[in-house]
Amino acid sequence: MEKLSEIKPPLEDKSQYLRELASNFKKGQVFQVALELDIFTQLKTPRTAETLSKVIGTAPEITGRFLDVLTALGLLDKMDGTYTTSPELYPFLSPEEPYYSKQLLLGDEEWENWLALKQLLKTGGLRQKEGDEYQYPYEEELMEQIARTSLLGRLQKTLKAICAFPEFKTARSLIDLGGGHGLFGIGLAQENPELEVTIFDRPGIAGLSRTYIKKYGMEARVRAVEGDYVTDELGTGFDLALELCSFEGNLAQARQFYRNVYSALGPGGLFIIQTFELDADRTGPVLPLLHDLYKKMASRNMYIMDTGEITGLLKDSGFENEKVLNFSETGLCSQLVVVRKGKKQSTVRD
To answer: Which of 88, 100, 176, 250 has the fewest CB atoms within 10 Å, counting from its CB?
Structure first.
């Protein structure tokens, strides 16, 4: 009889990976409850579980175990029976800090939708009234938070990449589509003293753009214009057009948008898009796929395209393919797609 100690495993054990995957829901729930109870602000200074439980109205023993899980997740530090929010994470976890993102805390609707995933898979998503299209609520407070967060590296890396194109040095006009706070357009105007920039965004957001334009003293060469970049006239003759992680439509709207941009560019003009990176077979990365799944669950009028779909629509709109740059270290918006309007007028395909 073969010794048990010498038996070769019949297959690689993947159960630990699956247990870890299943535990992600539990980890997420612990994190969400910690945010709801504002535990990270409460633990800016060290406290014991018993002291904290009195402040937030929880039972001391289970609170201690709860804090131990947060410690194991790397969110808290523990020493001599006291807990403190990790100093390097605190600026992102406390509502009193400028880099805190309200998007970390799932709203009631989003949480209920994820819990209803099995049912939504059967129904095809929530049923929306005809004509009731969702628009992302870009309130001024959120846009200001996005502006601050962009300064943590994404803005600088994107500006350097764009400035490296030979066409940027000779460009005289640029339109930043969905430019929001306007820091990308402002930054590019700073790098090219001959460049005039138009920040084009929804009514209500352009006012915030003007605030930043004034803050950086760029009123002479940067202006904010209100409108819908999918359907409205954008102007003509631009040397460069940007769309940096702002598009939220479906395939039909993307085609309409790209053709609108094509018309706005002058011959040889570049169109630079910063967007999610999805594998051609839509098997990764997981974060944009989760985002895409949720949009469908919530019946929101959005579809995240893979790179092939994006470049295919751009080609159908008359553009010539140039290059795709990887931006994976900047988060969800992980690639730059760069295309050119040909010097001869193209005939777009339906």
So the answer is: 88
